[in-house]
């Protein structure tokens, strides 16, 4: 079903229409400096499309909560735990409820974590609930920054991974990203590059004008036009709007934001007793700020006597544990199960560690894995070991711990490939093919896999030889074992990626 929504007026005087179904498939990027009318544009888009598609708004300033009065959006206060937000997002997809995630009042670090948890819950919804959703993210440069800022690296990593999932992989799950940013230079390029529709508003900085012109396929000398755009005027391009850059003016909206642009007002008349008004506390302030008297200083002799006095032994009932004990064996088994589920996906070998780590954290929360989650370094190590596909019998032997020790001298990104070959040597299995090793490294290039084997040999970790049938054998001098002959040109073997110990 083709549905077109009216965004305003084009330069020709005709209505500026957006094909909603095409927009859901191709996503939208809105850019404009502060005051250019981005929020007004998003509000017009949301109001016009509200009867046709479920909507989810990531709202860092609380401007879009007014949609609930006219269009029935449910406001989700983000001052909750990440687990709660993830579960709420799953129920929102299940029941197809339009919602506004209100992030107002949170620090930037908390906003990034809350948005990542919420988007993760929507992304990980069950396949039966993959209905189309218009996901609007205002001030997207906060959640997908191009460079590290004052926020923690972990918050930036999980937020950027969630935004990348939304824009890169969300289409197949029914999630259509609409992101708005003040500056393209502050937005991560891999997030911005996934949009096929663009609405560019007033821009003053040269670097942002040049990027806007490049995205619209315009010449650099035409970029000056972005400085002259009026408030609420944008240049549109994309399969859902226009095949050539087309200036449009956004139409009126039915609801209003809680925050408005500042208006000039005359100053009040200065009263005669202005000094008393400034420096004398009012009656409400006097009741709220009751100052405590400063404690009297303790004499030095009394203080030394108190410090030297022996402390009484705590009573047995006072030695209660604040936190329940964690069953480490159960925790390790749960982590192994989560890693197994991740690696059963045939595309897992070609995804970045950041995306896999985000998937790992979400699955751990769903399974309620006790204790602190693995940090990124620990996750990479466990993932490398899991990719080797070692069973319990091999892991409990004397040789495998030495193989793990040897792998620690290698960079994180090649440990999985090294351990896969080591596992074949310990169990005397055929040497993995180049295609299988390439998957373990996260690439489709078999030539790169062969270069890494040469790299291992140059570090005196392995010795490579070929038998009379032109099959490859890899020996590990430190382990005292070698692989069985294997065809290096054989097809990719998917079994090692799901052959976790059961």
Largest sheet: 11 strands, mixed
Give the termini separation. Answer: 48 Å
- List low-pLDDT spans: 289-294, 495-502
Tell me the fraction of residues in β-strands, as a range: 5-15%
Q: Name the structural class.
A: alpha/beta
What is the fourth-level CATH superfamily of the largest domain? Answer: P-loop containing nucleotide triphosphate hydrolases
Q: Can you tell me the CATH architecture of the largest domain? A: 3-Layer(aba) Sandwich
**DSSP E strands, number:** 14
The gross shape turns out to be globular
Provide the spatial order of strands within the biggest beta sheet.
Answer: 2-1-11-10-9-3-8-7-4-6-5
If you had to describe this structure to a student in words, what would you say it looks like?
- With 502 residues, this protein is an alpha/beta fold.
- It folds into 2 domains: 4-250, P-loop containing nucleotide triphosphate hydrolases (Rossmann fold); 329-497, no CATH class.
- 40% of the residues lie in helices and 14% in strands.
- It has 19 helices and 14 strands.
- The chain has helices spanning 20-26, 38-49, 67-71, 82-95, 108-123, 153-169, 189-192, 206-216, 274-279, 283-288, 300-308, 328-343, 353-367, 376-388, 392-395, 399-407, 412-426, 434-441, 446-458; strands at residues 4-10, 15-19, 28-31, 54-59, 74-77, 99-102, 133-137, 175-181, 197-200, 233-238, 242-250, 463-466, 472-476, 481-482.
- An 11-stranded mixed beta sheet has the order 2-1-11-10-9-3-8-7-4-6-5. A 3-stranded antiparallel beta sheet has the order 12-13-14, with helices on one face.
- It is globular.
């Amino acid at each position: 079903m083709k549905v077109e929504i009216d965004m305003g007026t084009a330069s020709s005087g005709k209505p500026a229409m957006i094909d909603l179904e095409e927009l859901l498939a191709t996503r939208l990027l809105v850019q404009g400096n502060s005051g250019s009318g981005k929020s007004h544009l998003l509000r017009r888009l949301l109001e016009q499309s509200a009867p046709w598609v479920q909507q989810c708004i990531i709202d860092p300033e609380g401007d879009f909560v007014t949609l609930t009065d006219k269009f029935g959006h449910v406001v989700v206060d983000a001052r909750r735990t990440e687990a709660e937000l993830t579960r709420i997002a799953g129920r929102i997809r299940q029941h197809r409820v339009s919602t506004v995630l209100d992030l107002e009042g949170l620090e930037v670090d908390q906003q990034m974590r809350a948005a990542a948890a919420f988007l993760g819950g929507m992304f990980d919804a069950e396949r039966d609930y993959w209905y189309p959703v218009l996901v609007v993210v205002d001030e997207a440069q906060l959640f997908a920054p191009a460079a590290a800022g004052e926020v923690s690296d972990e918050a930036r990593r999980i937020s950027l991974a969630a935004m990348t999932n939304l824009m890169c992989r969300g289409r197949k799950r029914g999630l259509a990203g609409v992101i708005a940013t003040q500056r393209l230079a502050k937005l991560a390029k891999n997030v911005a590059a996934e949009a096929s529709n663009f609405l560019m508003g007033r821009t003053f900085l040269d670097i942002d004008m040049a990027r806007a012109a490049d995205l619209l396929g315009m010449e650099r000398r035409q970029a000056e036009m972005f400085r002259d755009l009026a408030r609420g005027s944008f240049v549109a391009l994309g399969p859902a709007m226009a095949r050539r850059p087309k200036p449009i003016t956004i139409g009126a909206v039915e609801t209003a934001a809680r925050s408005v642009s500042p208006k000039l007002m005359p100053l009040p008349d200065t009263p005669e007793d202005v000094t008393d008004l400034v420096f004398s506390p009012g009656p409400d302030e006097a009741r709220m700020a009751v100052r405590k008297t400063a404690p009297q200083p303790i004499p030095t002799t009394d203080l030394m006597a108190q410090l030297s006095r022996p402390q009484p032994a705590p009573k047995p009932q006072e030695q209660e544990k604040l936190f329940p004990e964690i069953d480490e064996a159960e925790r390790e088994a749960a982590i192994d199960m989560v890693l197994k589920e991740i690696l059963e996906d045939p595309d897992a070998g070609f995804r970045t560690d950041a995306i896999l780590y985000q998937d790992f954290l979400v699955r751990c929360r769903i399974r309620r894995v006790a204790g602190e989650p693995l940090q990124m370094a620990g996750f990479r190590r466990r993932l490398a070991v899991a990719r080797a596909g070692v069973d319990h019998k091999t892991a409990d032997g004397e040789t495998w711990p030495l193989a793990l020790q040897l792998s620690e001298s290698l960079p994180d990104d090649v440990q999985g490939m090294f351990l896969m070959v080591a596992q074949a040597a310990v169990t005397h299995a055929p040497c993995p093919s180049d295609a299988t090793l390439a998957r373990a490294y996260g690439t489709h290039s078999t030539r790169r896999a062969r270069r890494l084997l040469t790299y291992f040999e140059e570090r005196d970790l392995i010795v490579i030889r070929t038998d009379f049938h032109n099959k490859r054998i890899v020996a590990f001098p430190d382990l005292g074992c070698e692989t069985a002959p294997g065809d290096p040109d054989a097809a990719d073997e998917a079994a090692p990626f799901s052959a976790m110990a059961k």
